[in-house]
Design brief:
Layout: H1 5-11, E1 14-17, H2 23-35, E2 40-44, H3 50-61, E3 66-70, H4 77-83, E4 88-90, H5 96-104, E5 108-110, E6 112-113, H6 116-125, E7 130-132, H7 140-149, E8 156-158, H8 167-173, E9 178-180, H9 191-203
Parallel strand pairs: 1-2, 1-9, 2-3, 3-4, 4-5, 6-7, 7-8
Helix pairs in contact: 2-3, 2-9, 5-6, 7-8
Family: Belongs to the KHG/KDPG aldolase family.
Protein name: 2-dehydro-3-deoxy-6-phosphogalactonate aldolase
Pfam families: Aldolase
């Protein structure tokens, strides 16, 4: 599969945020998510040994999954993540320098934003999509207004508070995808728990 964010989101609009995952759990959790056809896997850098988890996921799932890092705040981390096989960079904040560093490594980059000014500066730096964060502080109406002014086709993914109850309204407002954290994985969840949560989210 190519390095096109829209292709991955067309397959499944959910991004699994595996905050707190340990390297020894990564492959079993990845298996459960791929079995549920959720192929975009994000390991936040504030997890235990995140680069090793990314390396194991990328090695096991190869081109069947889009594996990368979240909570990336330092442009210098992009090269380390790419070297481990990561192909996705997600940030919590609007920093064009991280976007440029990710694009220099030929990675997909989905930086965080909250205002139109941030959105346009990130797109100018080469962002492939935008993460509306924290989505709890916005609303589907805010997303709809943003999409009216952003370049047509810009994928916007709300992150924060996304679960089976909130997804439908955001989807109706035009969200291209969703970053799912504790609603799909929290530390201590085994593969069976993740598989059950993944199935419910896919249905939503």
């Amino acid at each position: 599969m190519g390095l096109n964010l829209k292709d991955w989101l067309a397959r499944c609009p959910l991004v699994a945020i595996l905050r707190g995952i340990k390297p020894e759990e990564a492959e079993a959790i990845g298996d459960a998510l791929l079995a549920a056809d959720i192929p975009v896997l994000e390991v936040p850098l504030n997890s235990p040994d995140p680069i090793e988890s990314i390396r194991r996921l990328a090695k096991r799932f190869g081109d069947r999954a889009l594996v990368g890092a979240g909570t990336v705040t330092n442009p210098g981390d992009c090269a380390r993540i790419a070297a481990a096989g990561g192909r996705l960079i997600v940030t919590p904040h609007a920093d064009p320098a991280v976007v440029r560093a990710a694009k220099a490594q030929q990675m997909i980059c989905v930086p965080g934003f909250f205002t139109p000014g941030e959105a346009f500066s990130l797109l100018a730096a080469g962002a492939d999509g935008l993460k509306l964060f924290p989505a709890e502080a916005a609303s589907p109406a805010v997303l709809k207004a943003m999409l009216a002014v952003l370049p047509k086709g810009t994928p916007v993914l709300p992150v924060g508070g996304m679960d089976t109850t909130t997804i439908p309204a955001w989807r109706a407002a035009g969200a291209a995808g969703f970053g799912i954290g504790s609603a799909i994985y929290k530390p201590g969840d085994d593969a069976a728990a993740v598989a059950a949560k993944a199935a419910a989210l896919r249905a939503a």
